[in-house]
Amino acid sequence: MPDIDIQHRRVGVIMLHGSCSMSCLFCITENSITEMSPEQVKTILKLMKEQEMESVVFGGGEPLQWNHSLSDSIKLAKSMRLHTQVGTNGVGLNPDVIQNLNADRYVLPMDSINPQIHNYLRGGFRKHYDIIKKRLRYLTEIGVPFTISTVVCRINLDMLNEITAFLLHLWEKGARIHAWHLYRFLPMGRGGLKNASMLHITKDEYFEKTEEIKQRGMPFLVYRRPNMQLSKEVDFFWAEAGEVKVGSQVWEKKNSTYCLCE
Ligand code: SF4
Fold it and tell me: What domain range includes position 176?
């Protein structure tokens, strides 16, 4: 583990591997991310605890496609009194899996409430929008909290109000929405780089549209992330060629990327 200062970060994102069965147009995951072993995950969790971090997000790639037991790692994190989250594309998150994982919170994507547009952005996965709605309905029914993530890009820039209305409706139905993350599209990674000319938005466009949402005073947290790789509160852990890397400091230097499916 490199000697990097991660003090003052509250949340650690563990990118278990880079693989994913989806191919979203804005995916910023790099193919260079390799699979972590459960032992490496354990070492990271211990480090997070020593650094007094509070919460761990298991992400990828797609964490539900990790070749090891995610539920064991969640159990371990919980035994260390870390708050646990799973950032997933939702495809594999059926009721049995939710019961088995028993995470404290889930992070799920919603990029438009127009199914065609959402599914188009999600790489042409035609049923993805329906799957997400089903997952959100179920989490609402069983009272498990979730966070929604949206990648704001050229195609959905003018559709954020519709997502706002949808989330407010869910909230009124009793959904325990913890937060809504609004990520600005970044032209990098295996999807984002390829589709940059179609999806790119300026920082000004991003701030103008997301400010409208902030001004509405939503009943849950709304986080703006103009650069999803950098956050004062979050640090990232991933493996490359079997070696664990940590920290946005390394990211900045290496221009590496992550995906929370968020
Ligand atoms: S954005 Fe997430 S769900 Fe989409 S391809 Fe990348 S890792 Fe998979």
Answer: 11-254
The structure tokens listed for 102 are 């028993």
Whether 16 is in the pocket of ligand 1, judged by its Cβ within 6 Å, is no
Tell me the CATH number at 24: 3.20.20.70
Q: How far apart are CA 71 and CA 169, in angstroms?
A: 31
Q: What is the pTM of this model?
A: 0.92
pLDDT class of 261 with cuts at 50, 70, 90: very low
Q: Give the pLDDT score at 144.
A: 98
- Classify the C-alpha dihedral 54-175-29-36 as positive or negative: positive
Does 4 fall in a domain? no
- The answer as to whether 1 is a domain residue is no
What distance in angstroms lies between residue 16's CA and the mean position of ligand 1's atoms? 13
Instruction: Answer yes or no: is the C-beta of 24 below 6 A from any ligand 1 atom.
Output: yes
Q: Which stretches of the chain are DSSP H helices?
A: 38-50, 70-79, 95-101, 115-121, 128-142, 160-172, 189-192, 196-199, 203-215, 248-254
Q: Is the CB of 27 under 6 A from ligand 1?
A: yes
- Of 16, 25, 29, 193, which is best to mutate to test ligand 1, by the most ligand atoms within 8 angstroms of its C-beta? 29
Q: Does any domain span residue 193?
A: yes
Query: What are the two backbone dihedrals, phi and then psi, of residue 221, each rounded to the nearest 5 degrees?
Result: -70, 140
Q: Kindly give the distance from the C-alpha atom of residue 143 to the centroid of ligand 1, in angstroms, as a whole number.
A: 26
Q: Tally the domains of the chain.
A: 1
Contact 117, 111 (CB under 8 A): yes
| pLDDT attached to residue 8 | 58
Mutate to test the pocket of ligand 1, among 106, 152, 259 (most ligand atoms within 8 A of CB): 259
